Amino acid sequence: MSPSPIRDRASAVGDALPVVTRERGQRQVFCGLAGIVWLHRKIQDAFFLVVGSRTCAHLLQSAAGVMIFAEPRFATAILHERDLAGLADCNAELDRVVAEVLERRPDIGTLFLVGSCPSEVIKLDLAKAAERLSGVYRGRVRILDYSASGLETTFTQGEDACLKALVPELPQLPSGERSLLVLGTLPDVVEDQFARLFAELGIGPVHFLPPRRTTEFPPLGSGTKVLLAQPFLGETARACEARGASLLTAPYPFGVEGTLGWLRAATEAWGVSDEVLDAVTAPAIARAQRGLAHHRASLEGKRISFLPDSQLEIPLARFLQRECGMELVEVGTPFLDRQLMVEEMRLLPEDVRLTEGQDLERQLDRLRADRPDLTVCGLGLANPLEAEGLRTKWSIELVFTPVHGFDQAADLAELFARPLRRAALLRV
Amino acid sequence: MQLTLWSYEGPPHIGAMRIVASMEGVHLVLHAPQGDTYADLLFTMIERRGTRPPVSYTTFQARELGSDTAELVKTSVADAFERFKPHVLLVGEACTAELIQDQPGALARGMGLPVPVLSLELPAYARKECWGANETFYQLVRGLLKPRVPEAGRHPEPRPADRRPRANLLGPTALGFRCRDDVEEVTRLLASVGVDVHVVAPLGATPEDLLRIPEADFNVCLYPETADQTCLWLERMFGQPTVKTVPIGIGATRDFLDEVGRIAGIDVTDAKSPISSRMPWYSRSVDSTYLTGKRVFIFADATHAVAAARMCAEELGFTVVGIGTYAREFARDVRECAKRYGVEPLITDDYLEVEKRAAELQPELMLGTQMERHIAKRLGIPCAVISAPVHVQDFPARYAPQMGFEGANVIFDTWVHPLMMGLEEHLITMFREDFEFHDAATASHLGSRVGASRPAEAGSESQAAAEPADSPMQADASTVIWAAEAEQELKKIPFFVRGKARRNTERFAAEQGIQTITVETLYDAKAHFGR
Fold it and tell me: In b/e form, how buried is each residue of A142-170, taking b as 16+ CB within 10 angstroms?
């Protein structure tokens, strides 16, 4: 890595973006319901009621059930034969279940009715139900709906669907006022760091979506600039645009380069000079680079492949290649939103093997032929690949760990260095 | 619709997956939407397997619903056969596929594959996981052995006098509670009375092994929830008797050996003394006296619940104050058991009802599943796990059977562990205001726990959150001051690394001659030490 790859982004901008190969076949990914696992922690007064089958309930508890909950903040309304046969009025049933939830948890501020594959196939209208129930509980609980079915959403797209449902609820920012809205779940500590940086840069007011509590909804209006902290929020971003906000184009705030590029998008919009940006960020960048140096030795020159999972693959691949010296073998993503990914694509090597979608068995064939030093993949594949002698980094951890921003750059690198270090340590 | 915070069983196709994942040479094609592959991680993470379960999914998405999902089934079946070359192919549907009715089983059978193709009917909106496993195992055994069923009235050949009796162990599966070690323990137990194990199925079996099932003298139904249908069918078709006692607990293990002796026609009197179990002596030793009359609520699958009740009452001296099961198919056994102990049986798969009953009963110990651990946490009751559903910690590396004499040892340790030890229990009753040992605290041998409402160190009532290794260090670094906002920032670091972060930052500040620790210092130190 050159000492400062940050300033001269232009040098990396080629004429051609990497070619994307599309694949279809068996997909080994989570559905959007998995997003509930972190969303219920972020939005503390929200409750997620999935309307679906026993499979949906089983997915949620398999993913989150290792934690022992005194008060779970999610549940499933399981459809039974009576509901399918039309013997029971689904709407009346849903009203009863919602009443039961709210009686048990009077402290809930927002209840999400979450659609699933079965509820979609039988065309249960949750939007109508949410509207009806909102009328019933007005002033006490806000009731919203979104779909997180596997038919419609892949893993992190569940968050996109959830946040999109929040957009119409946001209060109107008076015209003539401006604000910065940061989209995407961030750990509280990262959110606070970013808030401090924006304050020092003189950018504000800054709001975050999702908020920690649904009583703290950020305002939205034509003066709002939207900055995406997560790459999987295309629908939410476009819903914000539909309310007059404008999107800032930026790379995602992973690593030094990404974070600086991300902040620069905001400083440019606010007319803050590069000198100020440099002055404010210099200590943190120096620190981040010292931190990164700890892990660079174990990552440099190592070959890495990404299987599709969260849409974080491209920004992370960019970070690992440009700041940690890793070599990209294949970068798979479940879905590629070109509008939101353009800045990232420019930073990737032109000849990178980039795949959108999945045909699992063929992708595994390629992986076995490539034998990279590290494979980023889901939990269904990680142990089986380890048993084949391939080192893996399980990908879901990347959405549960503070990885954004300067001060987490080293932590992010460490997530990838750790399995390699471990493999070198073990003598059993 | 049923409000479900936690469900005791997955959908029936998970049961089918448990059967195929237990076996070699069998492959399942599951018609299911994108996302249902989450089930793989039950096997790769919870059970920690180093192989993918032998399951291919069609993973259809919304855009495919408009077109031909049936074609997708055929492609998936052809691809799976071509790639995995199974000896038997199973085809089934998950809940969403059941709604769109593509008849994948019929489609696959019409494809003319050169191996047996069995179609599974798994009614996802009426049945559940154990039923799915039971049904799949039955369909598999029946499908393979049907052509070999002897004509009616023909009895099996009597065992030659020079051959040891042999038994099949039926029922152990992938994701079953302690199946791996139970099989080993029961094999050892049978060997001790001169009985050989012929076929273990489905765990570790191939389709060819299933064909050898009728060669054994009798079947041992280890887990009725997954194998009772199969055992019944084998009894009817091949005249193989079934040993029905499940050997969990000292008494049940003795009864099991008696039953084996009777069915195999051998003398087991010498083997019945539980010399290999320490549990009876541990339970009789004076240290266990305080266990007498401890009030226990049991909720589990029927087999483990009934076995636990007997152990509680006869072998540990507890009082059974409640018993229940989520396995409706086996409710009768639990009802009978409840009658024996004079308690009201609870037959439900509704977690909230179990929680309500537990709150009413206020037991001193809960024996249950992973779900009862949530209830026990909410109510502040000690809890031990005795049955599936379970999470990763209940697939241990160590030998940990529930069955046989070693199983009784394991159970003694596991059930007594969460209870407060005798001395501590006495002292807490005598001295109620101790800042460290008080009745809202977790038993001290379990270590400090976050979330337990213990007062902070030095009796300060202000802060209940656990700050374990933090406070002592403040004295050492008394020259360094923490700015309020840095202190706040520190609290954002997870508690289990917070102590280390505090120490590192103070060391860093001391080295650098920094007087006041700011947020910057905190992160400088973090970068300096590389975490």
Answer: bbbbbbbbbbbbbbbbbbbbbbbbbbeeb
* Interchain CB distance below 8 Å, B36 and A66: no
In tens, the pLDDT along B10-66 reads 999 999 999 999 999 999 999 999 999 999 999 999 999 999 999 999 999 998 887
Q: In what order do the strands lie in the sheet with A179-183?
A: A206-209, A179-183, A224-228, A246-247
Q: Are A116 and A146 in contact (CB under 8 A)?
A: no
Q: Which of B1, B36, B527 sits opposite A80 (nearest CB)?
A: B1
Interface residue A191 vs chain B (CB under 8 A): no
For residues A376-396, average pLDDT: 95
This model of the complex carries an ipTM of 0.92
**In chain B, what residues touch A359 (CB-CB under 8 Å)?**
none
CA–CA separation, A301 and A22 (whole Å): 27
- What is the 3-class SS of B461-499, one letter each residue? CCCCCCCCCCHHHHHHCCCCEECHHHHHHHHCCCHHHHH
- Residue B252 Cα, gap to closest chain A Cα (Å): 32
- A260 with A404: CB under 8 angstroms? no
- The Cα A30–Cα A380 span in angstroms is 10
- Say which residue the tokens 């026609």 belong to: B265
The two three-digit tokens of residue A113, written as one number = 């009715």
> What residue of A is the nearest CA neighbor of B55?
A26
Q: Which tokens in the block code for residue A84?
A: 């399918």
> Residue B391: which of A65, A120, A150 has the nearest Cβ?
A65
Distance CA B184, CA A49 (A): 43
Percentage of chain B surpassing pLDDT 70? 86
**pLDDT for res A13:** 46
Q: How far apart are CA A188 and CA A191, in angstroms?
A: 5
Are B128 and A290 a contacting pair at CB < 8 A?
no
CA-CA distances (angstroms) from residue B241 to B219, B231, B248?
6, 8, 20
- The set of residues, in sequence order, having a beta carbon less than 8 Å from that of A204 and lying 6+ positions away, is A179, A180, A198
Q: Say which amino acid occupies B104.
A: P
Query: What is residue B428's predicted lDDT score, i.e. its pLDDT?
Result: 60
Q: Which of B68, B287, B413, B439 is catalytic?
A: B287
Q: Could you identify the residue written with the tokens 């400083």?
A: A267
Structure tokens at B370: 């992973």
Closest CA to B144 of B121, B167, B166, B115: B115
When computed from its CA atoms, the radius of gyration of chain B, rounded to whole angstroms, is: 28
Residues in chain A: 428
Rounded to the nearest angstrom, the minimum Cα separation between B98 and chain A is 9
d(CA A394, CA A416): 9
CB atoms inside a 10 Å sphere around CB B234: 27
Tell how strand B166-170 and strand B218-221 pair up. Answer: parallel
Q: A415 CB near a chain B CB, below 8 Å?
A: no
Q: Is B267 marked active-site?
A: no
* Residue B392 touches chain A, beta carbons under 8 Å: yes
Q: Flag whether pLDDT at B173 surpasses 90.
A: yes
The three-class DSSP label of residue B13 is helix
Largest CA distance in chain B: 95
Q: Are A276 and A202 in contact (CB under 8 A)?
A: yes
* Model pLDDT, residue A400: 83
Which pTM does this prediction carry?
A: 0.89
DSSP string, B497-528: HHHHHHHHHHHHHHHHT-SEE-HHHHHHHHHH
Q: How far is A54 from chain B (nearest CA, A)?
A: 6
What 3-state class would DSSP assign to B322? strand
Tokens encoding B323:
């018993």
Question: What distance in Å separates the CA atoms of residue A356 and residue A370, rounded to the nearest whole number?
Answer: 18
pLDDT of B449 reads 47
